[in-house]
Each structure stands twice: as C-alpha cells, then as structure tokens.
Specification:
45% strand, 6 helices, nine-stranded antiparallel beta sheet, alpha+beta, 378 residues
Amino acid sequence: MKFIIQRDKLVQGVQDVMKAVSSRTTIPILTGIKIVAHTEGVTLTGSDSDISIESFIPAEEDGKEFVEIVQAGSVVLTAKFFSEIVKKLPMEIVEIEVGNHHSTIIRSGKAEFSLNGLDAEEYPLLPQIEEDNIFKIPTDLLKAMIRQTVFAVSTSETRPILTGVNWKLENGELICIATDSHRLALRKAMINSENQSYYNAVIPGKSLSELSKILDDTSEPIEIVITENQVLFKAKNLLFFSRLLDGNYPDTSRLIPSDSKTNLTLNSKEFLQAIDRASLLAKEARNNVVKLSTLTDGMIEVSSNSPEIGKVSEEIQAEEVVGEELKISFSAKYVMDALKALEGTEIHVNFTGAMRPFVIRTKDDDSMLQLILPVRTY
C-alpha cells in the first residue's frame, strides 16, 4: 500500500476515529487504527467494540485532490503513536507506504517514521446493518437534542440501562429521555421519517457524547438507522456505529406531574446565577443543597447554610408567582445543569409540594422539560 495525502485531512480523520479507540481493550488489535487505501480514497476505522467510527477521506472532492493512491492496500497501526505522529509532522503533505510484514513508513518533509503494523485482515468487521428503516434529522438539531438530555444519564453501573438515553420514535416524533433517578431531561422534535416506523432504543450516553463532538454544526441531514442491537449515524464521509443497551427503559411518563400547586416564572439567567452563588457555600457539604422559598410580592429567596462555613441568602424578583407558599430544597448542580440545557430567557418552574418532583420548562416551548427530585432536609 502506498498513498500521498493532505496532512490536515488525515489529522481530522484520525481525530474522529480516535474517539472510538480504547487503550483498555481485551482485543489487542483494537488499540490500532485500520487504514484502507482504495481507488476512491482512504478509509480510517477505530473501534472499542461498543463504538465503531469510520472516516472516509475522498481522493478528490469538489475538484480538489486530497489523496493520491499509488497502490491500494491496508494496514492497522497503533493508534496512540500514529495519532501523535500525524499531528506533529512538519509538512502539509504526508506519504504512507507499507512494506514487508506490515512495516509502515510515514514521511513528511525531512521527517521519516517507521511503525510496525498489523494485518488488517485480523481487524474485526464493522456491524452489518440492514438499512431498511432510515430516518433523517438535521445535524444541529441532533446535537442540541443530545446536549439537552445526555447530562442527565446515570454514571453508576448499578442500573446499566440508566447510563443511556431512551430514544422513542413514533408518528414522526422523536422523544429523547435521560434520567439517573434523581432528575430527568426530556427533549422532543418532529422529524422526517420515511416510513411510519416505531422505535424504542436506549443509546449509551457515552456514545452520544462522542458523536456530538465529531459532528459539525450544520443543518445538513444525518441519517440514522436503528436495528435490534445497533444504531448507525451516517454523516458525510463518516459512519458512527454504537451498540444499544439491553433491557427495558423504565416508564418515566408517570413521573411527570400533570398538576402543580406553586408556579414561578423567572428570568433563567438571574435564577441560574443566584443558585450558582448560593452553591458556593454548599459545595463543601455532601450534596450541595440550596433552598428556595417564596416570599410576598413576587419575590423568592435562594439560600444555603453550611453550619461549619457560613450561610448565604439572596432575593430575586420573579416575573410571576402563582399558588401556595413553598419552601423546597434541591441539588444546586442538578438545577444548574437543567437551566443550562434549556433555551430561552424565561422559564416556568412548576412545583407540586416540597417533597414532590418539580418541573422546569422554557416559556412558550413544550419540546423540552427538566424534572428534578427535591432533597429532604431535616
């Protein structure tokens, strides 16, 4: 195998597939990147058997030449060294040549590296996915939906299903739900689905986070294929496979209260900053608890008290306070995460009592919802 390639294209492709390469793997060849040169261009693959990423660098695109294929072929190179070498090569043009026993020469300018490669035939094949049911979603909308839900997945392996985001597609509406059993994030959107298929899958939060980092902020559609145990995201020159989590996601619909006793309308930024300040003294405490109390004349108080450090209280003017008086305690981190995920300047917070979950929504937008369980403080 021998080809000559633009360095920046190679660097980008390697960075993308590196997101799937794990140093801790039971299959030694998966610590490498598979490189295949063929007449159309160069394909790079990285995988840790949960996530697999394939990045394609076309020989030419829009009249520009990126790769010159001298001889087709394939090799697997240690990802750790190959990615570092490629980043630090001196010139814009890189030549890669594989000799006997997969020994690979990487040349750029006056620099020349020789790396021991492995046989690409040994590299596991990517999942074969029947592309019967494809639906499309604009890339920027997909990134927004991931950002607004993925932070709420569980980081604990005690209930593995909660480390994923539940994706449900029915009647052309995609609903994404994440919960760690203390909070819940929900985001829904109408999408373009060619057939009225129904899906209910749980995608690992880690996979979605990595996918989001790779995707560009464009309105170009990304194709999504969900099968029994895999999901495939197809963007331009990029394939991203992830396994799905096994098991049934809990029915979260009954967690979301339909009525409320106290409703606040607040400026999102003011509320976030007040909680941020109150949490400064609460961080030392075990669970970073902040209290909210309704006062008269549409004022609310955000406060926190750490006996060994001190206390803080701040009043903010709500735009509207309707319903019963309320005193409630909650995790500052959870509420701040929720507020950062919501878009818009005004939010509605609906409470059904001091011990019941409360809901935060953006005003005039019912496509997003954040639900948080309060903390008992005695």
